[in-house]
Amino acid sequence: MGQQEISNAVRSIFTEHFDIGPDGFDWARPLEELDERFKLLGNLVFLEQLLQKEFHKEVPVLENICTAFHTPADILELVANNTLKNN
Fold first, then answer.
1. Three-state DSSP class for residue 86
2. Span 61-65, mean pLDDT?
3. What is the pLDDT of residue 86?
4. Which end of the chain is less congested by CB atoms within 10 angstroms, N or C?
5. Which fold has domain 3-86?
6. Cα torsion for 50, 53, 59, 63, to the nearest 10°?
């Protein structure tokens, strides 16, 4: 899977499974600003599960992401690094 495909899949997860519309999505805004429900640990767990299902790899979101300041771009980097080094 190439970088563009990974990027599209990550963006799709955010816009399809969370309260973030395509027009409100921003790679550079913290997760909590995009959807306040990211303040709840359950939403971060759900994101991790969705990423693992999509990429068939363990993506350690809980251990590496703080929703108050990490952004979708950080999630993309985590997924890309994890996916690319495991292939």
1. helix
2. 93
3. 45
4. C
5. 1.10.1200
6. 50
